């Protein structure tokens, strides 16, 4: 993973009969990224455009089968494949013909059965509704005066069927009754009398596929014009109209019930036939999907090739150098399997084109590579930032998330995902949110492990400190005294946890650590740039870029890091310092370093006895020298490189002028024939095109070269300051995380454990009973998981991405490469979905 794989451009020539088998075998391997040699043709003019359309039609039918199986809500058992053509022994044309025939027959039969079934269900629903109308609407015509609001209405309705009063009966969804009443009253100006009766059981609604509660209705009206208005309202609200029988109600009722029984029998029989057909289809559906997707991918790829009149096929594609022999072997096996007579040829061709970038990753390294690729694809053979990120990324996260308690929880969670990887994979595939977490299980594991380490380094766990080793301080009643010859062996002494100046101590410690980690992180990036310069043979860049950039960084902020470490290492209680001056402050010292390097307002950092002023003068001279080094490196970084680049271009383009003019004459005089030769000869045409493009590269003017270098110089010099300041987020987030953890503890469990200070009753209720303590623990645990483990970890993760992408990568990373996309059935299937 240090650098991308060696890539070669392959020219693959094969007989037309072997092309399909060759592409199929190479699709299984996923080794070759094919180039489009038919880019001058549109999608409809390509060689296998017809076959692609046939595959898309088969894909449409498969989706229809899927929909019907899902709609049937029946679980089908797997079984033997449907007797048909053996795909391994038949030609692709026969496979498509066989599939088209089988799929067409299945689709026609399924659509016929489904259409008949829908029609019979509709008739059955209509008959059931009519049956309820007969049973329930008859009460509206009995003239039962108790059911009406006034005598005139009762008298009018009692003789409605024998008088001139009109009526309309039917069934309406219960939820639409208020809208129905409102509309009919408004449209008829209140000249109607509606009546409703509830249907005791819900009825099946064919449009929604759900059981819906409905009511039988009857609307009585005096004018004939009202009938049409009521009818339009019924149609608008989805109410069905059923004419109430004028006579022989009992006979009509028996006839309807008989019809319902016959329809139920026929529906069950049709459903059984549909189920049998779908069962037969479902057994074969996975195999059909796989084969159709394969054929579609193969024909898409075959459309990228060149075909000549002699029956040979030429393709060109990128391949990793280590996989060339495997490609040759598969091509020969495909030729033998297809009974082609002409041997297939696979040659490596030379080109000036930049190869795509390919890193072979595994489950562990994939997530780190994806983080880098999200920012930019590494250039071909450029140092891959993902290598350093496997350690530096989780470490920088842990610096901000340093808490061994939270680190243990994060480690257990991610370790569980690693252990139960196979069981959780289906869950991740069905949940988009969990899939992102599951994909980062290995980086989460490292983040948790490093958080445990930095947590012990800070001696901070869940807002508490632990005294694992013997403390180097003891309390004398007023202040903590240092115990002679006792130093806490690892991490921060737990005695600091109970002091009033704890925050000041942690603030200073973490701020200085952030600066040291930042300068170290950026220095690693500069040395990665050096590795790139050596690999690509840009040796002048070592002297014109790397060394000036390194000196600018190290002579300023590298010097500050040296002061921090040196101050930590000095015993400022030594007699040679006591009484002469207090320990110097680094922040004012660095301010003087930039603003007035000749003036030392702070005591000397480097003092071993003697005259204090002489030590201050010596340090001032050293600081002036370091600042001069940084200032002198700026013009060295700015001026020489564009001059050198311009001179290189002049030497490169001068001898090509005559050759360029000859090439341009050839192109203008015979462009049509040249294009024809390129199509027939395949590789020769491509090689000639690459060579001609290389010759016709435009020479950049000196002004552009200088402006580019000026921008780079300004960005780097200003970035040295801003990027170093950006690493202070390591201090800020770490301090915030520790303070939040401490506050959550003190305001919940810590408060409960100290209830004795308030009252004995409160202590008994909260602590001794256990109920209150459990309740408070739940609050603390919920805040720990929700705020510290979820929100804070996400915040630290995003800040780590920022430090990796910007502060680290901009020291060496170009990120302008193109990702290697080999032809593979697995990736083609995902793209199609």
Automatic annotation (TrEMBL):
Residues 96-123 form a coiled coil. It comes from the Eukaryota. Its main location: membrane. InterPro entries: V-ATPase_116kDa_su (IPR002490), V-type_ATPase_116kDa_su_euka (IPR026028). It is a multi-pass membrane protein. One of its GO terms (biological process) is vacuolar acidification. Keywords: Coiled coil, Hydrogen ion transport, Ion transport, Membrane, Transmembrane, Transmembrane helix, Transport. One of its GO terms (molecular function) is proton-transporting ATPase activity, rotational mechanism. The chain crosses the membrane at residues 391-420, 432-453, 513-534, 546-566, 620-644, 765-790. It is found in: Membrane. One of its GO terms (cellular component) is vacuolar proton-transporting V-type ATPase, V0 domain. Pfam families: V_ATPase_I (PF01496). Essential component of the vacuolar proton pump (V-ATPase), a multimeric enzyme that catalyzes the translocation of protons across the membranes. Required for assembly and activity of the V-ATPase. Belongs to the V-ATPase 116 kDa subunit family. This is V-type proton ATPase subunit a. It comes from Naegleria lovaniensis (Amoeba).
